[in-house]
Amino acid sequence: MIDTLPKWAEVDVLVLGGGPAGFSAALASARSGAQIMLVEQHGFLGGMATAALVMPWNVWAKPITSKDIGGAYAMLIKELKKNNGTFLFSDRTVLRSFDPSLVKIIMDDILLSSGVQLLFHTLAVDVVRKNDEITGVVLQSKAGRGLVTAKSIVDATGDGDIAVRAGAGYEVGKGNQKTQPGTLIFKMGGVDIQALIKYLKNNRSEVGNWPPTDEIRFGDGEHICVHGLFKIVEKAKKDGLPVAGNSLIMTSTPVKGLITINITKVFGIDMDDPMSLSRAEINARKQVVVAKEFMKHYVPGFEDSYLADIGIQIGIRETRRIRGDCVVTMDDILGGRHYDNRVARLFNVGHLDFTGTDKEGKPVARFEYLQKDLEIPAGSLTVNGIKNLTIAGRCISTDPGVFGFIRTQTACFATGQASGTIAAFSALEDIDVQGVDIKNVQAQLLKEGIEL
User: Fold this and answer.
1) CA 149 to chain CA mean position, Å
2) Could you give the number of structural domains in the chain?
3) pTM higher than 0.85
4) 167 in the same domain as 67
């Protein structure tokens, strides 16, 4: 049946997924000289940043740091700044807010100006594999099914969809299959930021330990990035309001008085089951309705606020981890292992784990910073037995512990840039992704502003 499909395109590198990883992979491949097509299921780029409203970037930024990942991410930030679409919560940190609508527009502009062909409203649903090579990817859209052939493939779907369809092994969650919950983020407009900050400063027990300093939490007095409101949530629950969780995160956007709210939690989502995912979306929206009422009637500064927007999909923290040529483990990281073939270095990494429980069996969150930089080796982005596939984003090859540190968006920008560069060298030099000279890849990454 696949043999009869129309051939839609033939390119050097085919990137599947247009989130932070896919955006960076496509840009890196194009700037390495390859002909690129990027396929995205939505009508826009940005992934969790734009579809699920997940912010801020560099969420686990250290209290005082100027280190950032550079590359495609830095190019995006530069253009957002020109359009007043981003800001730092402090000039001594890299914790960054952004305007999701502008991210969509600017990502389009950057990729199109680099010669990348964008194909929206299209899903990658199958592969054609011959021996150890993916010879084509089957796409599905309103037009039906078609085939795209490419010398190299980058799986930036977030879930490793194409890698799995090509036969790659994978793991989900920890040994008990337990995964991080999904969250549907929403925006509240008309918020009195000064009143909110005043309340929090006068009620220090309502302020969590992330971000770690008031300089970051309250910035210039016009913006806020805070985790907390423990007592107010507890009071609302005692009053009979079924608020999800026991705290929330509030993050200012570049639009005055517009704040994103991270409070909903849906556990037990099976991303391989569309019925499970559908139930999760419905459940999360019901939680948003409750949370909106909670914000208006319990939280100072929100008295005259309104529900301004809801992410078009639930934010997914964890699905598959593809088994690659190298599996990065916590023993490697904590033991200080250095990789000569490193293709990314993450400076600001932490892990917020929601899978733990207290003595009563209720979910509890646990946060930890990783004190060291985290190096990503090339082998964690390639798959044993498939010579023209790289993976990028949260599905790269790690153990469950390391996964918690590499699932954030800025990490996805970094692994995407690396995967796209490897894919381009593979395609242009007609060699396996495993055989690409990593020194050449590292030189190209350094040229693009990546610090290794």
Assistant:
1) 27
2) 2
3) yes
4) yes
